[in-house]
Design a protein that fits this description.
Layout lengths: L12 E5 L4 H12 L3 E6 L4 H8 L3 E4 L11 E4 L8 H9 L3 E3 H8 L4 E6 L4 H14 L5 E8 L4 E4 L5 E5 L14 E4 L13 H12 L7 E5 L3 H12 L3 E6 L10 E8 L4 E6 L4 E6 L4 H16 L4 H8 L10 E6 L2 E6 L4 H15 L4 E5 L4 H15 L4 E4 L16 H4 L6 E2 L3 H11 L5 E5 L7 H10 L6
Parallel strand pairs: 1-2, 1-4, 2-3, 4-5, 6-9, 6-10, 7-9, 10-11, 11-12, 12-13, 17-21, 18-19, 18-21, 19-20
Antiparallel strand pairs: 7-8, 13-14, 14-15, 16-17
Length: 469
């Protein structure tokens, strides 16, 4: 990662509890590259921890009060509980404790902040925008929750004026930012374990729009009803708003129209037109949802001062991010991809993308639900989305920060899918899914948890011939 020499160095020591998380590791990298001394811990070893060690960060496997330097500012995410021995030690000592979002805001100080929010689409849209701005010569800084190949990481400290970051709505922490540009890809209800209902979820996004700088702009997808309502409400409060979408999919007029969409297994293209310009976007990633993401990135790039035609050209350089329909290997004609989808809408979009790539072949999905609360709230919607695949195998819920709930398991979803199989052990489930995939089929390991480890299990099953039908 390159240092941004013209920005003020950040002094002091920071200790990250749970530094191996996708969001935490990104902030740790950024602070190190702005001159801070950083250490951290995580509950188990990982390739990401080894990478952080290579950057000069002192990392510990396991949580222990002895890991916490007495002079450090401690950084936590919402997932870290007060009972954590390192956090308890910091509290007892009276050390300063920052939420990850506050540390990210510190890492972005001195730059124009561009926050990308939404229940889904954040990583891809922020990755697209960052890659395109770099291609256009802007050299932005980046904080994205997935590896972007052009940056070699999800974190990058550039020399330009712009800082592109995912803005997390799950715990309301995106209210710690003051963006000059906000992108909201959708306001589809999620995280209902935290928010009382869909109305409360929409209200937090309106609060986010109130965090815009005085001359800032809110970019909203008008195809999503919640985001469309946000656009209306923000306009009423006097904020500048630019909406986008396919006219036939929007309830009202939009500022930036998407027309003439052409989709294939290799990519997707469309004409985007506003009152100021008309361009053709040609993407190297498939899926109509990616045209929506790219249009948001195009609008933001033009707002940053990039010429409309140049921004359209630059978006063609985006080739994807890790765990967003990421190719993981093939044996013969069988292929396996990995996808982070963990919300019903994301699942449906990922399966549609798989259909395009599979052609005449069958689509097999190995799905690991993420969170007990999300499984309980959306079991029926997950079942409908997963039913779009030819074969579905579910495995145990990835609990993440939650404790198990009595009566809540992946069976709530599998029971609603004809022919679906529920195999509690993840690795056994991967082998079952591999055997269901025909010779010309495509298999997707799907979910926000540890299921990403199963792609190699699938490939091994195919290599041994156990998957032959």
């Amino acid at each position: 990662m390159k240092g941004a020499g013209r920005f003020t160095q950040i002094d002091g020591r920071f200790h990250f509890i749970g530094i191996g998380g996708a969001g935490m590791s990104v902030v740790a990298e950024l602070l190190v590259n702005r001159g801070a001394c950083v250490s951290g811990s995580d509950r188990c070893a990982s390739a990401l921890l080894r990478r952080l060690e290579g950057l000069g960060i002192e990392v510990h496997v396991g949580h222990d009060a002895r890991n916490v330097p007495s002079d450090a500012t401690v950084v936590v995410s919402t997932a870290i509980q007060e009972s954590n021995p390192e956090l308890a030690c910091a509290r007892q000592r009276g050390q300063s404790v920052l939420h990850r979002s506050q540390a990210l805001a510190l890492a972005a100080s001195g730059m124009r902040f561009i926050g990308v929010a939404g229940a889904h689409g954040k990583t891809t849209t922020s990755g697209m925008l960052a890659v395109a701005l770099r291609e256009a010569g802007e050299d932005p800084s980046v904080a994205v929750g997935g590896i972007v190949p052009q940056f070699g990481s999800g974190a990058y400290l550039g020399s330009g004026d712009f800082f592109v970051a995912e803005a997390d709505e799950s715990d309301g922490s995106f209210l710690n930012y003051s963006p000059s540009i906000e992108i909201v890809t959708n306001v589809e209800p999620d995280h209902l374990d935290r928010y009382e209902d869909a109305g409360a979820f929409e209200e937090i996004f309106l609060d986010f729009s109130r965090r815009l700088t005085p001359q800032g702009v809110l970019v909203c997808c008008a195809e999503d009803p919640g985001a469309a309502r946000l656009a209306v409400a923000a306009r009423k409060e006097g904020r500048r708003v630019l909406s986008y979408g396919r006219p036939a999919k929007c309830a009202g007029a939009v500022d930036v129209q998407i027309v003439d969409v052409v989709s294939s297994a290799k990519g997707v293209s469309a004409t985007v037109r506003s009152s100021a310009a008309q361009v053709r976007l040609e993407l190297a990633v498939p899926g109509v949802h990616n045209i929506l993401n790219a249009t948001a990135a195009w609008i933001a790039g033009v707002e940053c001062g990039v010429a409309p035609e140049e921004m359209a050209r630059a978006l063609a350089a985006f080739t994807g991010t890790s765990r967003r329909f990421e190719w993981r290997g093939a044996v013969g004609e069988r292929r396996v991809f990995d996808d982070y989808a963990h919300h019903p809408t994301e699942v449906s979009a990922a399966i549609a993308q798989a259909r395009l790539v599979a052609g005449e072949g069958e689509v097999v999905v190995l799905f690991q639900p993420h969170l007990f609360s999300r499984t309980r709230f959306f079991a029926a919607a997950f079942a409908r989305a997963l039913s779009e695949a030819d074969h579905v195998v579910l495995t145990d819920i990835y609990a993440a920060r939650e404790e198990p709930e009595e009566g809540v398991s992946a069976a709530l979803i599998s029971d609603g899918i004809e022919g679906a199989r529920f195999v509690p052990n993840m690795y056994d489930a991967a082998r079952v899914a591999a055997r269901l995939c025909p010779a010309d089929g495509l298999l997707v390991t799907m979910g926000a948890g540890s299921v990403t480890e199963c792609a190699e299990v699938v490939l091994d099953e195919w290599r041994t011939g156990a998957g032959d039908q």
